[in-house]
Amino acid sequence: MSDLGRVLVLAGGLSHERDVSLRSGRRVAEALREVGLDVELRDADGDLLTALRQDSPDVVFPLLHGVQGEDGAIQEVLSLSDLPYVGSAAAACRLAFDKPAAKSIVRRAGIATPLSAVLPQSTFRELGAGALLDALVARLGLPVVVKPARGGSALGTTVVRSIDELPAAMVECFAYGEPALVERWIGGTEVAVSVVDTGDGPRALPAVEIVPESGTYDYHARYTAGATEFFVPARLDAATARAVADVAVAAHKMLGLRDLSRTDVIVDDDGVPWLLDVNVAPGMTETSLLPQAVQAAGLDLGLLARDLLAAAVARHHEPDASS
After folding, report:
1. Is the whole model's pTM more than 0.85, yes or no?
2. Which residues are in the ATP-grasp domain (predicted)?
């Protein structure tokens, strides 16, 4: 067994991404057991705090997705419990989870990100949906992508190609959260770049190219085996591959992230990488992108997860360590 002691893998929760989180948790727990760690896998439920007080683990690997897992809430709970954990601190999670805020930060760093607008549901009710939708199209053009400003797994996300499709897309978005982020659609090659840091600084893993059968990388395409074709490494020339890696590492640093993240990028026809989203709790399922990148880099998921846990423990014991 490892000298890391007892590892707690947290999965589940109550977000729309509960099923994905459970699948991620099971996979990472099994990978850690295979490299000799003592692992407990448990749900993030109403008994969690009591369990943490009564039988405190030595280190935690949170694998909660969406609200609670990526908005800083579970990170605050673990900090309050004085437990080391893998992943970014609560404040950085809140920043990255807020897509408009994160886009603003990376844009100031010179990273291209699509033109967008952010509107809550109440604005449509109070000012009139028709006029606002017309203004959005006049500003952003078509197609656009409508998605919750805070969320993941493409839930509530719709590609809108005609103005007649826009009202239904807004309703779908608001069903999963608000405000709505309406973003100019960028055509090109979709890639995901995972960044890991086990203590020597953040580094990008090989980019994963995403080619969904339906043409849209939605929830079904993400988590249904065979619904999407992946190319690892992505079919990019050397200069473009370096550019997307640089974008992912820069975003990781600019947003104050640590340990691991995944940046979603579109490479347009001119080879320009456009940042779409930054994820602080990447999926770890059988079809998820970070494990594919880990394999392409010649790494073992269990050993990488073990090294991330070790880095979290070391950080926690530093005199000036932050939460």
Report:
1. yes
2. 103-310
